[in-house]
Amino acid sequence: MTDVAITPTPSPSDPQPAPPFPASPPVTPGWRTSEAWLTLLAILLGALPSSGLIDGSPLLIKLVGMGVALLASLGYTTNRTSLKRAHLAAHAQLTCAMFRAPAPTETPCALAA
Q1: Which H or E run contains 51?
Q2: Which pLDDT tens digit goes with each residue over 37-64?
Q3: Which of 19, 38, 40, 95 shows the smallest number of beta carbons within 10 Å?
Q4: How many whole angstroms separate alpha carbon 88 and alpha carbon 72?
Q5: What distance in Å separates the CA atoms of residue 81 and residue 99, rounded to the nearest whole number?
Q6: Torsion, CA 30, CA 47, CA 66, CA 60, rounded to 10
Q7: From residue 27, how far is each of 17, 33, 49, 52, 62 by CA, in Å?
């Protein structure tokens, strides 16, 4: 995606052109974020005792390790989903502003349902 300013076309009833809207920044692919790499590290370190690669790990350490791995993966998924949802909502508002349509009061996900 290139950084190009989007200029809305003026409507016939509004002879004054609207100011250009800045292009929205692209969403970074998930695997390229530091959050993804730190989550992967937490998952690997959490799952290591449960995998059997470390001999003599007590059951409690194995359960805590699996819990850490589970919470790290759920946390990453939740945060990444909310980031993408916010990006889509901002893009929807920008699109509505470009075409001078009323902004949706619901999230794009609720409108699609």
Answers
A1: helix 34-51
A2: 999 999 998 888 888 888 888 989 889 9
A3: 19
A4: 24
A5: 27
A6: -160
A7: 29, 10, 35, 38, 36
Q: What is the dihedral of CA 112, 20, 23, 107, to 10 degrees?
A: -20
Residue type, 8: P
Q: Dmax of the chain from CA atoms?
A: 78
Query: Distance between CA 109 and CA 98 in Å, rounded?
Result: 20
Can you give the pTM of this predicted structure?
0.56
What DSSP state is assigned to residue 107?
Answer: -
Q: How confident is the model at residue 21 (pLDDT cuts 50, 70, 90)?
A: low
Q: Find the helix or strand (DSSP H, E) in which 90 lies.
A: helix 59-98
